[in-house]
Amino acid sequence: MERTLIIVKPDGVARGLVGTVLERFERRGFRILRLEMRQIDRALAEQHYAHLAGKPFFEGLLEAITEGPAVVAVLERENAIKIARNLIGATNPVDAAAGTIRGDFGGELPRNVVHGSDSVESYLREAGLFFPGDRDLLQI
Ligand code: DAT
Ligand code: MG
Asked: Which domain holds residue 90?
């Protein structure tokens, strides 16, 4: 069984999309292992997006992910990472297919509603950042 870390970003929360996003994952057979609403602070945002430091959009990205409460979840199912990424859709909502979360709910970069881990290594790193000390989450 594989796991993924999902974030309904502040823009998604502000637009009232928490239930809709979680429903899409549940309908696709994901089990919710952790679920938490929290304000992501700048230090955590910088670590979460460390691989993007130096990009021209980095500051705007930090602003978007810290501008209000977010909902952070750990979800589980077979092939969780790939299936979640497919449900979420392309990074830029302009490119995201209809039927995907980003394709259906749009937004303008960097406000694309939802985050999903892009690999098992990323999941382990992100689970350690958002749920430190929760060693059960690292059993994969
Ligand atoms: P993804 O979230 O699809 O994994 P990513 O990891 O490349 O995409 O980038 C992380 C976030 O950064 C992305 O969800 C939105 C923002 N972002 C990416 N490319 C951007 C760009 N060209 N302009 C503004 N924001 C961007
Ligand atoms: Mg990414």
From this structure: 2-138
